[in-house]
Amino acid sequence: METEILFKNESYRMMGACFEVYKTMGCGFLEAVYQECLAIEFRAQGIPFVEHPRLVLDFKGTPLKQTYEPDFLCFGEIIVEIKAAKNLIDDFRAQTINYLKATKKQLALLVNFGHYPQLEHERFVNDPLSRFSRIS
Q: How many CB atoms lie within 10 A of CB 42?
């Protein structure tokens, strides 16, 4: 049985924007530079997004003072967390999964602009049956 790719068209467009930023800028800049470039590219490609949306957390139904702020929320549904590191590590993956938990969204993209010689990226799906799955 073949499973359908969640937000296939939207994530394809978003990754296209990420590849464009990487192709133009390469690796070696700070994360903030890629953040700004990606916002410009999302705008140019007509991809709806919010930068650093403040996510309210709760503990057993009680709102917390602490909040989470992923880099982007696109199409109102897809979290994008960007990095500028040599490689993706489990801490980055855990952070991305926590954003999915906090938002109860279904899809997150973890994108690393610091990897050479190509953009590094992973998809995380918040699947109620298996909890979380990573698709590289």
A: 21
What is the value of pTM for the model shown?
0.90
At residue 25, the 3 state secondary structure works out as helix
The phi, psi pair for 48, rounded to 5°, reads -70, 135
Q: Based on the structure, what is the number of domains in the chain? A: 1
pLDDT 10s digits, 74-93: 999 999 999 999 999 999 99
φ, ψ of residue 73 to 5 degrees: the values are -125, 115
Is residue 2 assigned to a domain? no
Q: What is the DSSP string of 36-67?
A: HHHHHHHHHTT--EEESPPEEEEETTEEEEEE
pLDDT in tens, 50-64: 999 998 888 898 999
Residue 71 domain-assigned (yes or no)? yes
**Inside any domain, residue 1:** no
